[in-house]
Specification:
binds heme D; mainly beta; Methanol Dehydrogenase, Chain A
């Protein structure tokens, strides 16, 4: 049985209300140099994403030593007594919290959990900065543009290729969506977070959590990496220039550490410019680590939408003149995370997840259209768009912290949707999920189905399933598909999380990753979108810890 955040409420509600006391001057547990190195590595791989390199907190709580070191017995909290320190931290790390922290007892060993409980009581080491020169030194142009094929040298239907992250293997699988066969597995950075496509559909860009960015050319007989560059030491986002006349001229990458974005040549990845995102939050406080979360390319203007997590500032970066770079900073809310376009592709919808809000940016006017209150911790991925029978165009997001999917009415320039104006920028309906822990939702213009996962739910049954709503009758409970059972794989000790539904080009198949442990057999389970029956299970042993999947056509055209 999975343990639910047993001590979660204490951690989630209590830690922040702990009074500062002189007792925190006491020494943190001593670590050997070897333990320190290992702690650093595990912290980077598993913790930094939510808590930040400097541990100031964002999606996760602040983990600076004044919170994590043992408090004296009897320290009074608002709701009772709490003592942090090694033992309590071990429990939190093992079993997770109701505040959204996942349990690590099936990911880390007991010794590693003990190490991390001690490690985070020590002052966070500050990683080095990463300059344009560092980027240039890391840049490898493996094949110059003039030596690349001038036409497609294979017969694969490139538009229906899926780029699939093999998270813990540090690889990317390119799978032929027509034949369901693995086309090629390529080395990439560690735990590629997202893949994005060039405007031409020829190149796949990946960004590893370790900051390594690759460009893969699909015109060769077999996909080939033609250049690589390092953006920094911790990264999540990348996109190309998509506006008419600038197609694939530039690539932008965003880093968590150092907090900055970098602009590169779109075909060679040659580094051109770095811009820091350090500065003030929407509350006016200085923040030393404002990380770059999602980035998207606008098709309305030569601009990227760059969402800065800790400051809550949304930057519209105009790439028409890189030397004299102009950008607009739009105030929204903390902490910005992921998002996607509305149906008209004029508004970018981004989750400010710790504020329980979604910001809608009007990229035509260059200003905030609305800040929409939602249920707890919205986490849309790119979200999902459809025309609601009663409320017109809606964009949707699931929630990590609540058992609902929120449907938000979006504005439209199309006169046929004018009658829905009064609903715009409000949550018009909430679809009931079996529990919290959703990460991704998806639909397709040709489908009547709406898919939602719940991989962060602590219950095995829920985390291993996906939920399919009928858009013709949203009052019906969703159909639950148990992806782990449907995969036909034997039961495993660790939960195999069913994650990120992604449509094929035609919009008639939905691919789900069954994300198991590093040594478990994982799978990609492909469902027929009409019948909801399994069409194919890809269980090749090379499919190690699959997570994000990016269909070439849908990613190029922002179909979701
Ligand atoms: Fe993600 C998107 C950050 C954990 C899978 N994730 C994003 C984006 C950001 C982000 C900023 C938006 C990128 C963009 O659009 O430009 N993710 C983070 C984190 O900081 C966090 C919470 C912790 C971490 O250490 O990374 C985190 N993410 C995860 C996972 O654990 C997931 C489930 C598995 C994995 O591969 O690591 C995961 N994130 C994804 C996926 C997307 C994503 C699949 C793209 C969704 C899409 O449809 O575009």
């Amino acid at each position: 049985m999975q343990k639910k955040g047993l001590i979660g409420s204490a951690f989630a509600m209590g830690v922040l209300s702990l009074a500062m006391s002189s007792a925190w001057a006491q020494e943190a547990p001593k670590l050997t140099a070897e333990e320190m190195e290992k702690g650093k590595q595990i912290y980077f791989e598993r913790c930094a994403g939510c808590h930040g390199v400097l541990r100031k907190g964002a999606t996760g709580k602040n983990l600076e030593p004044h919170w994590t070191k043992t408090a004296p017995d009897g320290t009074k909290l608002e709701g009772g007594t709490l003592k942090l320190g090694t033992e309590r931290l071990e429990k939190i790390i093992s079993y997770g919290t109701e505040g959204g922290m996942v349990n690590y007892d099936d990911i880390l060993t007991k010794e590693e959990i003990n190490l991390m409980a001690r490690y985070i009581q020590n002052t966070p080491p500050i990683p080095p900065e990463f300059s344009l020169k560092d980027m240039k030194d890391s840049w490898k142009l493996l094949v110059p543009v003039k030596d690349r094929p001038t036409k497609q040298m294979n017969k694969v239907n490139l538009k229906n290729v899926f780029a699939i992250t093999l998270r813990d293997a540090g690889k990317l699988a390119l799978v032929d969506g027509d034949t369901h066969k693995i086309w090629k597995i390529l080395d990439t950075g560690y735990a590629v977070h997202i893949s994005r496509l060039s405007a031409s559909g020829r190149y796949v860009y990946t960004v590893g959590r370790d900051g390594l960015t690759t460009i893969i050319d699909m015109f060769y007989e077999e996909p080939t990496t033609v250049a690589t560059v390092r953006l920094g030491s911790d990264a999540r986002s990348v996109d190309t220039s998509k506006f008419k006349g600038y197609e694939d001229k530039y690539l932008i990458g965003g880093t968590y550490w150092p907090p900055q974005y970098s602009i590169m040549d779109g075909e060679t990845l040659e580094p051109m410019k770095i811009v820091s995102t350090r500065g003030n939050t929407v509350d006016g406080d200085y923040h030393p680590e404002p990380r770059v979360a999602s980035i998207v390319a606008s098709m309305t203007k030569p601009e990227w939408v760059v969402n800065v997590k800790e400051t809550g500032q949304i930057l519209l970066v105009d790439y028409s003149d890189i030397k004299n770079l102009k950008s607009i900073a739009i105030e929204s809310a903390k902490f910005l995370h992921d998002g996607g376009w509305d149906m008209s592709k004029r508004y970018f919808m981004v989750a400010a997840n710790a504020s329980n809000k979604v910001a809608a940016v009007d990229t035509k006017e260059g200003k905030l259209a609305a800040l929409v209150d939602t249920a707890k911790i919205p986490h849309p991925g790119r979200g999902a768009n459809f025309v609601h029978p009663k409320f017109g165009p809606v964009w949707s997001t699931g929630h990590l912290g609540d058992a609902v999917v929120s449907l938000i009415s979006t504005a439209s320039d199309d006169p046929k949707f004018a009658k829905y104006k009064e609903h715009n920028w409000k949550v018009v309906e909430q679809l009931k999920m079996p529990g919290a822990g959703n990460l991704f939702v998806k639909t397709h213009p040709k489908s009547k189905h709406f898919w939602a996962d719940a991989p962060m739910n602590p219950e095995r049954e829920v985390a291993e399933s996906v939920y399919v709503f009928d858009m013709n009758d949203l009052s019906k409970a969703p159909v639950a598909l148990n992806v782990a059972k449907d995969s036909g794989l034997p039961e495993s000790k660790a939960i195999r999380r069913a994650v990120q539904p992604e449509y094929n080009e035609a919009g008639d198949e939905v691919w789900i990753s069954l994300w198991g442990g590093k040594t478990d057999q994982s799978a990609i389970v492909i469902y027929d979108d009409k019948t909801l029956k399994v069409k194919k299970v890809i269980t090749d042993p090379a499919i190690v810890t699959p997570t994000g999947k990016f269909n070439v056509y849908n990613t190029m055209h922002d179909v979701y």
